[in-house]
Amino acid sequence: MKRTLLKTIALGSFLTCSAAAMADQSDYKLMVIEDSITAAPEFEQPFNSCALNVESKKYDEAEAVCTKAIALLKQSRGPRLKVRELTSFALSNRGVARLKANKDTAGISDLYEAVQISKNSLVSHNLTRAKEELSL
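The line above is the sequence of Tetratricopeptide repeat protein; the predicted structure tokens follow.
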């Protein structure tokens, strides 16, 4: 019982992190994990690296590390709601990277999937922005 409780607490704090948005020049919102103390390093590094690579206009690298973050999140056994939210954020970030790399179909697909997972206002903003930009 005690061991199970400790395991539950550990998993709870494992993904307890806050995500913040950083705006790039085109007004897309990129999400990053702010709380490095409680965020798992294996998620935090690729997650934040994706946003930084988009900011640096390294779109192919951004896409690759976002894809890695998404794969890691899919394997996570952390709190379901937090994993879903972070997956949505990672998909949104990857969608922005793909749009910036002129991979419009893949980018818009990521953004639609992100909104289906979590109707977060930042994710919804990115989808709306992309639809305006692509005249959809």
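Note on the example: The chain is about 70% helix and 5% strand. The helical segments are 2-14, 41-55, 59-75, 80-100, 104-117, 121-133.
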